[in-house]
């Protein structure tokens, strides 16, 4: 392992070199280069890397280093065949690293677990579908099955999946969103009547300031850096709040700009970079509003106009007085203690905010994976409402989604608690009574499986065992099922934690040409800006027995329900037919087949952006909450006699969620190792430890359960004292299944109270490196 401080800008030659390295290492160099050139182009495919949108100027190449990694990873010529499974029993595969499992290549044949040999073995599609139907139809209640979705599934796949499951009789739709942006949806829905971001891509061209909270775009949304770079060059203020110094938020060289590349130029991204404590963002925003209220009062006293947008507030909102009372009642010492920023830093941020006519606020997992995430998002919304920064050009709220179609999947009804209107629409369009009782989210699904209430798990993509909290319990939950089914492109840990019966069903990915009845098909996705557009794979390779996700879902549905409520086989012969059904049932999708032919697709609209508030009061709602107390130093100290740290679990530059592409985290200067803990220099000294030392990490959830991971290397880093950071999924055993966000139920993976001790053993899975 090497640690080498990264002094360059994000992007630049490093990104280009890394893209090239990944291309060259792949077995399909030319095909993959050609493939990359079709990423995010009209008539190309939507990048499976992230849910950032496209600017209207679509002639340019639109891929980034990490998009290239995602594409290469999928477009490998390596194959996991039935012969591979015959040679490698499940018990052996379980001992291998996550990297090893996915590196073996694309799954190319449906396989079924054989307990006699402990191996998966080839099965026909027909027998696989029949086995699923047998298990599902034997259940006492349709609610005894869990239907998981990861956010790569297309609109077409997701729509068919939910239609099948609802006709079968359940709303049990745990999904990756439950672990991701759930709080954004809930927080905004209550406050402004819509659970999606209110901005369009073009708004970034008009914003005077962009506030970025709890997000690492250099790694996770690299195309967003391009947008921020343009904004910064035009003079917009970019203000970042991040507990870590993330290189991509500081400086960026666009690898697709010949001038910047040749002149070694780069663009400063953030004008101000604040490093609050983990979970301190709600206090930061409260402090900003407090500072702004003081400025406001001074203005009024001087006989000047209010700095708040009083006309907007009067016409469009409710609840301001109560909120301002709460702000006034929150003392500065409470705010600064929680925020980990000084009053003057917060005032500086507030000044930039109010001097900017148009402000966009973006956020991701640093905001959504906390206990108080819904409250934080509502505090952010309050600030924007106070200044009329929603529903005008260049302004608004922008939760930056994760998986490339996670937003679309929700629109299509992958929702365990669907609104009544959605259920009515499905019931009417397909002439059956869709179930209205709420189903299970991710955490509830794990609990239902553990309790023996749910007996079947079906995963449409994803890696449930590795992504979900409390690895030991999640694995126990899956292993207790009568049947586990995974529809997947690549082998992963979830496939090895199998039920009594188990199937792995190999599917086509985003980059593959999808032929049905001899004709290539396209699917559609929705980005973070509510743009729906078509995506068609471009790679023709040896797909063996792989089938498309819609075809697999249709196969399962037909075996289980026969031709109810639709003729499944007929519908998948031409995906226009699926879209006709979507158009019939989902608002905003009328004439979908035509609308997706427009370059760039079509905009679904956003009621809040139109200043239509779909809340009970028909107004935008200021939401008033107390600041959280669980992360206050005194409360942390009470958990142990040893120093208690707050741990966030996050992504390295070389991973896609549970998919590990490699062992480097270039911008953070870590090479060849993933089991690291980023920690402040002073904390290392105070503990009497040394930089580079191995430690064991124990979580303290106060429930007496031991949750520990072993043998992590300390890496000195710019991070607030008392806060530490490490990668998931290695640290998921530390996340408690009961440590959930209020209202969102999202596992708290950004604030785990832990203690560190000198490593006693260095166990865990053996990691196998590429070279
Ligand atoms: N290459 C790549 N792209 C991806 C993914 C991937 O794994 N790899 N995953 C996709 C998915 S599903 C998602 S959801 C997104 C995730 O995108 P991000 O949200 O950027 O992902 P994380 O790595 O979890 O990073 C969290 C960031 O927030 C900061 N942070 C953590 N806690 C706090 C806090 O309390 N306050 C503040 N202010 N900052 C905090 C961390 O330091 C870090 O910079 O990316 C998507 N895109
Ligand atoms: N501790 C901690 N835990 C977290 C997080 C965190 O920050 N910290 N982040 C959470 C977040 S934001 C998310 S979104 C979840 C992610 O949870 P998931 O979405 O469940 O996990 P992924 O790692 O994205 O899934 C990877 C697998 O998807 C399959 N796959 C890839 N492409 C396709 C495809 O096109 N079709 C199909 N059918 N399968 C495909 C491959 O087999 C691959 O192994 O993890 C969550 N877990
Ligand atoms: Mo996510």
From TrEMBL:
Domain Molybdopterin dinucleotide-binding: 645-732
Iron listed as a keyword: yes
InterPro entries from the UniProt entry: Asp_de-COase-like_dom_sf (IPR009010), MopB_CT_YdeP (IPR037951), MoPterin_dinucl-bd_dom (IPR006657), Mopterin_OxRdtase (IPR006656), Mopterin_OxRdtse_a_bac (IPR010046), Prok_molybdopt-oxidoreductase (IPR050123), YdeP_MopB (IPR041953)
Alphabetized CDD domains for the sequence: MopB_CT_ydeP, MopB_ydeP
Obligatory cofactor(s): [4Fe-4S] cluster; Mo-bis(molybdopterin guanine dinucleotide)
Keyword 4Fe-4S attached: yes
Occurrences of domain Molybdopterin oxidoreductase (ranges): 117-488
Entry keyword set: 4Fe-4S, Iron, Iron-sulfur, Metal-binding, Molybdenum, Oxidoreductase
Coiled coil: none
Family: Belongs to the prokaryotic molybdopterin-containing oxidoreductase family.
PANTHER family: PROTEIN YDEP, RESPIRATORY NITRATE REDUCTASE
Protein's name in the database: Oxidoreductase
Species in which this protein is naturally found: Psychromonas marina
